[in-house]
Amino acid sequence: MAQGPSPPPPPPPPPSNGDKSQKTSDIIGTLRPTKLFKLSKPNTHVTSLDFDDEGQLLLAACSDDSLQLYSARDGTHQKLCLSQKYGCHLARFSHHSQSIYYASTKFDDNIRYLSTHDNNYIRYFKGHSAAVTDLAPCPSNDMLLSCSADNTVRLWNSKSQYAQARLNLATPYLATFDPTASVIAIASASTSSILLYDLRNYEQEPFATFDMREYDPPSSNLPEWTKLEFSNDGKSLLVSTNHGQGHLLLDAFTGMLKAHLPRPYQSTWGVLRPAPSATPSKLPLGQGDTSFTADGRYVIGGSGADRDAVVWDTQGTVKKEGERKVIRPMCSLPCDRGKAALVLWNHRFNMMATADTEVIMWLPDEHVGMKSL
After folding, report:
1. With helix as H, strand as E and coil as C, how does the chain read?
2. Is residue 319 over pLDDT 90?
3. Angstrom distance (rounded) from CA 111 to CA 103
4. HSE-CB of 99 using CA atoms within 13 angstroms
5. What are residue 236's phi and psi, to 5 degrees?
6. Rounded CA gap, 301 and 132, in Å?
7. Once rounded to an integer, what is the mean pLDDT over residues 229-253?
8. Which class for 85: exposed (0-12), middle (13-18), buried (19 or more C-beta within 10 A)?
């Protein structure tokens, strides 16, 4: 029997623009919004973002007391978990993608450890007597670091509801681990200092203290620091701020200022989320609007005025502007929907997420060029 022509071969699969094998420097200026997720209720804001260890899932805590889970690989909404009794903020994945930590915003100040698989609590971490201002999971084990307005920093083991260690400090509103999980950095707003502790000897005095007073604006009562982050190579420490003069890029070993990273526009009241040190307001909570890329070279952040995100190259030219050392943004990442009030890089794949009243995923687009400022 005669046979007809054979069917054409299937088309090749689309290129994986989020492929982690691409160099960040090759794609950094081509990131564009590819997926937008609207929140279920009007006037709801995302207050924190986090990717899981494998970079497969994105977690968003929202001001309507909901926790939203998205697939970063498929670009789909996966699950909704509610925390209506306790509220939620600073939601972080544990090292297991089906369990998360988050801070309570009402009823009490406990930290909650939730299984997203069955929406049941695994444990409450009890001890804080005022709002939790930062949560930082340890990169190498199941320890968790928390800061609070009760002037304590606590170190937790996920297997116990009580803190393993406690530090009494003045306004220790931000904290983070270095990539090797051997150093803890804690930012004290009222003393304008950053304290470095050896994790193995955390009950001893800090082995280094970075005095940040000379970098504070003259008119500032308390520094408006919003986030503390080490680069993945451990060489830089980024202090994100709401200051007009910009974020602070520090040498992680000496604390010396490498450069200010100013936004391209002067921010107006209500555009930026308040810092933990700010006077309580009706503005939605946040976790800072900057993020290092996985290679530690670039910083992505909100522009401060329009909806675009911007990119700073930390290896770029440092210019002297008056008494300040400055690195200006190298390019803009345009977006026509929603501002980048929160920014987070996926450290497993070349993609990022931003959020405000919507959640937006960004991927490289090979058909666009870099947008200059």
Report:
1. CCCCCCCCCCCCCCCCCCCCCCCHHHHHHHEEEEEEEECCCCCCCEEEEEECCCCCEEEEEECCCEEEEEECCCCEEEEEEECCCCCCEEEEECCCCCEEEEECCCCCCCEEEEECCCCEEEEEECCCCCCEEEEEECCCCCEEEEEECCCEEEEEECCCCCCCEEEECCCEEEEEECCCCCEEEEEECCCCEEEEEEHHHCCCCCCEEEECHHHCCCCCCCCCEEEEEECCCCCEEEEEECCCCCEEEEECCCCCEEEEECCCCCCCCCCCCCCCCCCCCCCCCCCCCEEECCCCCEEEEECCCCCCEEEEECCCCCEEECCEEECCCCEEECCCCCCCCEEEEECCCCEEEEECCEEEEEEECCCCCCECC
2. yes
3. 5
4. 16
5. -125, 150
6. 24
7. 93
8. exposed
% the chain with pLDDT above 70: 90
CA dihedral 308, 313, 317, 322 (to 10 degrees): 50
Q: Are 31 and 308 in contact (CB under 8 A)?
A: no
| Residues 145, 185 contacting (CB under 8 angstroms) | no
pLDDT, tens only, 286-305 = 999 999 999 999 999 998 77
Dist CA 102 CA 96 (whole Å): 14
Indicate the average pLDDT of the chain: 89
Any long-range contacts for 321-327 (C-beta under 8 Å, 24+ apart)?
324/245, 324/260, 325/257, 325/258, 325/259, 325/260, 326/246, 326/259, 326/260, 326/261, 326/262, 327/249, 327/259, 327/260, 327/261
- Per-residue pLDDT tens digits for 361-371: 999 998 886 67
Bridge partners for 121 per DSSP: 114
What pTM was estimated for this model as a whole? 0.90
User: Quick one: tokens of 109?
Assistant: 């100040």
> Tokens standing for 10?
């299937």
d(CA 367, CA 373): 19
Q: What tokens does 115 get?
A: 């299984």
Whole-angstrom distance, CA of residue 213 vs CA of residue 53: 35
